[in-house]
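Run log, item B.
One chain of 141 residues. Sequence copied directly from the ordering sheet:
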Amino acid sequence: MLDHTGAGASVFPVRGLLTPKRLAVFLACVVSLVGCCALAWWQWERFSSASGSFQNLGYVLQWPLFGLFPAFMVWRLRRLNAQHAAELAEGAGTDPAEPADPPAEARQRYVPVAHEDEDPDDEHAAYNRYLAELNARDRAG
């Protein structure tokens, strides 16, 4: 197709807009939405019947949300990826002498603290002996 300047131009200005991966993700989102809407309709029919309950009505409201969730996740991941790319592009113009990650000393690491000043409780020690005895029986038998 030709544009107004006479040069060749693609129908889709963004290269790779219709890739197999994107089509598969789109198809999965549509199938999810259609399937969940069918389940919502089924639950509505159950609610309308003589044996229907308000639990069925709750499912009528939930199923369409379940069907929209994959599309929401695709939107959210694309937005996060764009935000991350913008941060990387913005970070490319900063001073290279400045480290991107904080130094190892600045990162905190969880280290369990041993409380040696506490005397062991007699009841706790007896329970531990009992557990050790049960463990010994299980290994022997």
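Observations after the first pass:
- Helices lie at 20-48, 54-91, 122-140.
- The radius of gyration is 30 Å.
Flagged for discussion on Thursday.
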